[in-house]
Specification:
heterotrimer; A alpha+beta (98); B alpha/beta (390); C alpha/beta (187); B: 390 residues; alpha/beta; Rossmann fold; seven-stranded mixed beta sheet; six-stranded mixed beta sheet; 40% helix; 18% strand; C: 187 residues; Pyruvate-ferredoxin Oxidoreductase, domain 3; 6 helices
Chain lengths: 98, 390, 187
Amino acid sequence: MTKEELKGVYKTYRDLPLTPITSVNSAANRTGFWKTFKPVMDAEKCIKCGICWKFCPDVAVKMKPGELPSFDLEHCKGCGICAHECPKKAITMVMEGE
Amino acid sequence: MVMTGNYASAYGAKVCRAEVISAYPITPQTSIVEKIATLVSSGEMKAQFVKVESEHSAMAALISASMTGARTYTATSSHGLLLMHELLIWAAGARTPIVMSNVCRANGPPWSVWADHHDAIAQRDTGWMQVFCEGNQEVLDSIIMAYKLGENPNIRLPTMINEDAFILSHTVEPVDVPEMEDVDDFLPPYNPRFKLDVDEPYGFGSLVMPEMYMEFRFKINEAMEAARQGWRDVEKDFEKKFGRNHGGMVEFYQCEDADAVLIMAGSIASTAKDVVDKLRSEGKKVGLARIRIFRPFPVEEIRKLAGMTNILAMCDHSYTFGHWGPMAQEVRGALYDLADKPLLKNYIVGLGGKDMTPEVIEKIYLKTLALKDGLDADIEWIGVKGHGGW
Amino acid sequence: MIEVRFHGRGGQGAVIASNILAEAAFIEGKEVSAFPFFGVERRGAPVTAYTRIADTKIRNKSGIYAPDFVVVMDPSLLNAVNIVEGLKPGGLVLLNTKLEPEKLRANLGLSPDQRLATIPATDIAIKHRLGSKSAPIVNSSVLGAFARVSGVVGLEPLIKAVKKNVPIKIDENAAAAREAYESVVIL
């Protein structure tokens, strides 16, 4: 079986590899549509401490040291941990569509 | 050379060039890993020895190592094997052809270090292939065959090599250790198509929806079914290369015109052969069938055996409660569809290392020869003080 | 088939002795098997080890209950263990002791057809500086004596097996075996 065949459509058991193999990075799995609430940052309150970046279980908070963090909404599932942990309450969870 | 079954296991791993070994000590397996550790530290064996804190971790280490394409080996016994149980099922599902020596030892309580097959039998359902050995040479040879068959792309299943506690593990017997060049010739390097590799990364073992789970299990089923002929073939190839044959999936000893045949597995079968010779010399036509390959279960060979005699008696060296002896159930199942079935008796023997002497085995043969139909065929425990005349 | 039972204390090398005997017989082309009494062993605790020697492949994997020979490596075991249990009629006991056989026979419970041999293996071991004065390694001396009184293995194969299996003082062990071979007393 070739690497390309792994990404193919499996019609019968014969088309499968011996054990389930994932050949794409999990980043290809866009879970952003799972969320009901999305995080919104109040830039004035943010002190760039990086706590939201550390706590995000989905690596959906992107941040360079000393810079304002940003949210990767294609992967963010809206769990709200970043808002909960922010020491300055700079993040608010806002209903999708608002 | 003369050596213990444990050293035979260690040398088996060595000549097969096992690359990653991870194990946790447990009586009576300890000298296997001690020997391997010595061979690795002296440089005689080129392998990575991963020290871990439990048998569960040992199996975890080996599953991952095997998935990088390394040939892996470990050894354990009874409670250690039981601790690995969860991961034994994983190893088979992940199609990692790990080879493991299991030193068959009774499970507690009561605490026991002596020979009993319960530990191996309790892993029937894991998807591992299982071999039961009657001697130290067979232990070493089976390791070589297990890698050869297990790593075959159509099989890709792990194998448990069962050697009885102390009776094989600590008993010194003549063993011929094959030359590594000859083993290299017989056993090519392990090279799975997909492996854990930073240059070509993959994820393994992910969630599968109901639409596809059964299909993966069906593939394992196909492999296990193919392993029947696989074992027959690898034994023939082994004999061609190394000149030794251990009897195929079921070894038949003087079964051809027998009035009664005892079926056994492991070292007790070896002692029974002496008893067969003695009884035959006295005019009693008895035989001994030794189940060597237990998983996949040798249905064809058992049906062939049924055609040779009118009375079969399975001597189970383990008991799991709630039904007949474990191997007896499987033999009985294999015979169900036959129109012409022999009487099938079940004895439970040798639990916790209760010695199966030639005298006891002879008593069992004589009892078996005297069996008639019906209730005589019930399960019978041998040697329990106060029961059944013992 | 010849069956031998060794009595020793954990740490004295009884198990190694049973293995060396097996290896010596193997060198002579025999089929062999050797095993300890499988128990939880500890330094100082009584230990039993066994060897089977035969001309044809040994298939019997059960215990030895009626040995042809009994070898006692530590004289203090006489008070702890019934060393003559199961000894076959006409069987022989080899005892590591300074005492002469006549003095011991009465206390051992041997039947008239069973034989006794003695060897001062502890003295021989100390003389060859094997082990320490308090914990001498007597197995090579005992085996040398055993080869002589039993006729089960020759001295040269035994010496070969001793040299192969002792971790240190290879020549001293061989010399002790040889000396014991020469000086064992049979009643």
